TrEMBL record:
<dbReference type="InterPro" id="IPR036452">
    <property type="entry name" value="Ribo_hydro-like"/>
</dbReference>
<dbReference type="GO" id="GO:0045437">
    <property type="term" value="F:uridine nucleosidase activity"/>
</dbReference>
<dbReference type="GO" id="GO:0046983">
    <property type="term" value="F:protein dimerization activity"/>
</dbReference>
<dbReference type="GO" id="GO:0005829">
    <property type="term" value="C:cytosol"/>
</dbReference>
<keyword id="KW-0963">Cytoplasm</keyword>
<comment type="similarity">
    <text>Belongs to the IUNH family.</text>
</comment>
<dbReference type="GO" id="GO:0008477">
    <property type="term" value="F:purine nucleosidase activity"/>
</dbReference>
<dbReference type="GO" id="GO:0042454">
    <property type="term" value="P:ribonucleoside catabolic process"/>
</dbReference>
<keyword id="KW-0378">Hydrolase</keyword>
<feature type="domain" description="Inosine/uridine-preferring nucleoside hydrolase">
    <location>
        <begin position="13"/>
        <end position="315"/>
    </location>
</feature>
<protein>
    <recommendedName>
        <fullName>uridine nucleosidase</fullName>
        <ecNumber>3.2.2.3</ecNumber>
    </recommendedName>
</protein>
<dbReference type="Pfam" id="PF01156">
    <property type="entry name" value="IU_nuc_hydro"/>
</dbReference>
<dbReference type="GO" id="GO:0006152">
    <property type="term" value="P:purine nucleoside catabolic process"/>
</dbReference>
<dbReference type="InterPro" id="IPR023186">
    <property type="entry name" value="IUNH"/>
</dbReference>
<dbReference type="InterPro" id="IPR001910">
    <property type="entry name" value="Inosine/uridine_hydrolase_dom"/>
</dbReference>
<dbReference type="GO" id="GO:0047724">
    <property type="term" value="F:inosine nucleosidase activity"/>
</dbReference>
<keyword id="KW-0326">Glycosidase</keyword>
Amino acid sequence: MAPASAHVIQKKVIIDTDPGIDDAMAILLAFQSPELDVIGLTTTFGNVSTSMATQNALHLCELAGREDIPVAQGLHKSLKGDTKEHAVDFIHGKDGLGNTNPPAPKGKPIDMTAPEFFISKVKEFPGEVTIIALGPLTNLGKAVEMDPSFAKLVGEIVILGGAFAVNGNVNPAAEANVLGDPLAADIVLTCGANTKIIGINITHQVTMTGPQIEELRRSDSKYGRYLCDVIMCYLNYHRDYYNIDAIYLHDPATVIAAIDPSLFTYAEGVVRVQQEGICRGLTLFNNTRKKWAVPTAWCNKPPVKVAVTVDADKLVVLLKERLMAS
């Protein structure tokens, strides 16, 4: 845990993650942030398999000297039993960390599954735990199914997911994390927990450029050197597929939403997730005040907060400062 100054109130945070290059950035950022007390990492499928995500999470804890942080392995398939549809080796590398082939971690995951760990911690610290979800929402959806009190006991859920009023990044309809488990996403987004969701309409506004990445390398910080080697695979993907000399900061932006909420603004309303068909994984946001004459699947559902603006410049400065200070 980064040392906390006298005026900083730390949030107890669990990061549900599928490392993944931008996940690695986000996790190391969290370790460097005095606002956050990381009390656990949980793993899910997405950028890599759940098993590889677990190995990468343990590796990142060891890299940071944070072997004290428990890592709980999550579910390997969606709530419907589906396996991941698309490999993303071309984005994150076969190892999820830019084909850098990190050494096998010495540590092991704890005996509890990720959903069990969530439930245990929100009961131990009711109203105090923030869960930052950086991958498909399978583990959270399972926790909601397992324990009806979970949604009321968790302090906050901050989700990277969805595409609001923009196209998705897997296909025109869907963002990758939501498409990874649309059922779990719909369960979590309608469970009544205090929830914020950061979509790619926001994270596509937040980039670290090629020159900024080189600045990070030249800083000679521990995390800077490590991440610059890992990032190159990710940067080349963005150059090839988006025609930009930059990377999108999806996961770091979501962690910063927990670190400094003032950098975002939100609209409130109901979000539902399309389950089938050509628009499977679509996140549709209703924040109208209209009263519907005929009852629908949208009625009597609890609202969530959907990010609508971000101060991208300040966010990137904060990220660079934290990583360079390692």
